[in-house]
Amino acid sequence: MSHDWPLWEVFVRTKGGLSHRHFGSVHAPDAELALRHARDTYTRRQEGVSIWVVPSAAIVASDPEQAGELFEPAADKIYRHPTFYDIPDEVKHI
Amino acid sequence: MATASPVDAPSVDSRHDYLLRLGDDSLILGQRLSKWCGHAPVLEVDLSLANLSLDLIGQATHLLEEAGAGDGDKLAFHRDVLDFRNCLLVEQPNGDFARTMARHLLFSTWQHMLFERLTRSSDRFLVEFASKAVKEVAYHRELSSEWVIRLGDGTEESARRMAEGLDWNWRFVPELFEVDETLKALSDSGIAPDPREFEDEYRSAIANVLAEAKLDVPADQRPILGGRRGHHSEHLGHVLAVMQFLPRTYPDATW
């Protein structure tokens, strides 16, 4: 039965001020039930304050075959990493 | 709800009985739903049903501990079937998923309307209990409504099963609005709401969900009453046999 239902990607905001993060996916017949399934599957232990669900089919993904050309050129550009700054301990989530 | 006066103050027994009614409703339905664990149509629904079950067992724990002066387990596991005070609706067999959802819609809509009113009870424990539980039950009501609508307005087979599920459970609805002497005393003193106050609201809420589900409101059948007095269907004995087996057979077991 579940393979008749489309797949939905679940994004959960764990607390105010943070971004929604990908948590996983659920099967559901429609968007409303996808939200409920996401709530019941991923926020049972108070993990979230907000949920997004997106049809998995709507996700445009990069091609793993192209990983080399897409990502490797960044490997030796150390100057793109802001590692030369001192970050105060009080600053979280950066 | 009227103000309490010393003359018509309900007895301690009435309050105890009411706590058993509410606690047994939640306990028995929670136990019923837990049987779906591992058997639901899909994994996501399995988790939904387990969540509903755990909410209900949590409610039962609070209510029976209050009734049993801290020993809720004794009430849950060491009472016999005639001493249970749950309504007949919650002990009805799960049937298929449609029948389970029909039962849950009929029960959780009632429980939600009841708990909303219990948050204004004159009894402090019930106010605290209901204020927390009303949110859980609001979700139960929404979830079961969604499923009734989808199955009713789904395929030919899902609509047929949903109609059968409703039909099975429908005769147990009048009991939810029955007022006996215990309940009368409690409602006169502002402890418990009189359910007849929200019967119209209940019936129109159910009718709205069924209309959206493209289902007919079932014809009224001969109502079956008696759960609040311990007159149960044969099903409850089987539920208790499974639920109570372990603590009765191994009284020293801990978990």
Write a brief structural summary.
The complex is a heterodimer of chains A (94) and B (255). Chain A is an alpha+beta fold. Chain A has helices at 31-42, 67-71; strands at residues 7-13, 20-27, 50-55.
Description:
- Chain A is of the alpha+beta class and 94 residues long.
- Helices cover 18% and strands 22% of the residues of chain A.
- Chain A has a single domain (2-80), classed as Roll (Ubiquitin-like (UB roll)), CATH 3.10.20.520.
- Chain A contains 2 helices and 3 strands; from the N terminus they run ββαβα.
- The longest helix of chain A is centred in the middle third of the chain and has 12 residues, at 31-42.
- The N and C termini of chain A lie far apart (42 Å).
- The mean pLDDT of chain A is 87.
- Helix content of chain B is 64%, strand content 0%.
- Chain B has 10 helices and no strands.
- Chain B has helices at 12-34, 43-67, 72-77, 88-91, 97-118, 124-152, 156-170, 181-188, 199-212, 234-249.
- In chain B, helix 1 packs antiparallel against helix 2.
- The longest helix of chain B is centred in the middle third of the chain and has 29 residues, at 124-152.
- The model of chain B is unreliable at 1-7 (pLDDT under 50).
- The A-B interface holds A 1-2, 5, 26-30, 32-33, 36-37, 40-41, 44 and B 41-45, 47-48, 51, 142-143, 146, 150.
Topology overview:
The complex is a heterodimer of chains A (94) and B (255).
Chain A: E1 7-13, E2 20-27, H1 31-42, E3 50-55, H2 67-71
Antiparallel strand pairs in A: 1-2, 1-3
Chain B: H1 12-34, H2 43-67, H3 72-77, H4 88-91, H5 97-118, H6 124-152, H7 156-170, H8 181-188, H9 199-212, H10 234-249
Supply database-style keywords.
A: 94 residues, alpha+beta, Ubiquitin-like (UB roll), 3-stranded antiparallel β-sheet, 2 helices, flat, B: 255 residues, Ferritin, 10 helices, globular, disordered N terminus
